[in-house]
């Protein structure tokens, strides 16, 4: 139950701040985040996810990879929306154990465009927005994970 409260508190804090401001996170947590190596499948959504996640991590310095973040991205498209789901697992590279694993999803509206080209472009833009949004969600969740792990030790 405490994990759920922590996740809700973090989500609320990010929403009220209007951006992913992590200036109040300890240097130890930033150092742990800098040890994550991202492994994704090939594809544009995966590339954008990886780039956004690495951009967020790089703000605080990158060091030798101690953790491996493996992700699987899947998306479904409806008439006027798209839903993207990212399943991830964070592994300790030293012993191969799974430290945390979770699935996040997000949805985006796709404007009703009459042309085929416009519809295709709207789908591409929705996929790009969702990839970056999910990278930010997982980044924030991993900050929470490392914060809780530190406070439990």
Short descriptors:
Double Stranded RNA Binding Domain, alpha+beta, single chain, 153 residues
Mean pLDDT over all positions: 83
**In terms of structural class, how would the helical and strand content be classed?**
alpha+beta
Biggest beta-sheet profile: 4 strands, mixed
User: So, CATH architecture?
Assistant: 2-Layer Sandwich
Question: What is the count of distinct domains?
Answer: 1
Verbal overview:
- The protein has a single domain (2-152), classed as Lipoprotein like domain (Double Stranded RNA Binding Domain).
- Helix 1 crosses helix 4 (116-152) and helix 2 (27-33) packs across helix 4.
- The protein is elongated and about 55 Å long.
- It has 4 helices and 4 strands.
- 49% of the residues lie in helices and 25% in strands.
- The mean pLDDT is 83.
- The protein has a 4-stranded mixed sheet with strand order 1-2-3-4, with helices on one face.
- The two termini are 19 Å apart.
What's the short version?
The protein is of the alpha+beta class and 153 residues long. It has helices at residues 2-17, 27-33, 44-58, 116-152, and strands at residues 36-39, 67-77, 81-92, 98-109. The protein has a 4-stranded mixed β-sheet, with helices on one face.
SSE blueprint and pairings:
Elements: H1 2-17, H2 27-33, E1 36-39, H3 44-58, E2 67-77, E3 81-92, E4 98-109, H4 116-152
Parallel strand pairs: 1-2
Antiparallel strand pairs: 2-3, 3-4
Helix pairs in contact: 1-4, 2-4, 3-4
């Amino acid at each position: 139950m405490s994990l759920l409260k922590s996740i809700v508190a973090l989500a609320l804090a990010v929403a009220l701040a209007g951006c992913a401001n992590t200036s109040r996170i300890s240097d130890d947590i930033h150092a742990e985040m800098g040890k994550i190596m991202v492994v994704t499948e090939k594809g544009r959504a995966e590339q954008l996810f990886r780039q956004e996640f690495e951009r967020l991590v790089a703000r605080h310095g990158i060091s030798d990879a101690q953790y491996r973040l493996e992700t699987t991205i899947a998306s479904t498209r409806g008439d006027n929306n798209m839903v993207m789901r990212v399943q991830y697992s964070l592994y300790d590279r030293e012993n191969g154990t799974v430290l945390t694993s979770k699935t996040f999803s997000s949805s985006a509206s796709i404007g009703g465009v009459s042309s085929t080209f416009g519809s295709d472009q709207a789908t591409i833009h929705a996929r790009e927005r969702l990839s970056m949004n999910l990278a930010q969600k997982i980044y924030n969740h991993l900050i929470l994970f490392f914060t809780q792990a530190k406070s439990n030790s």
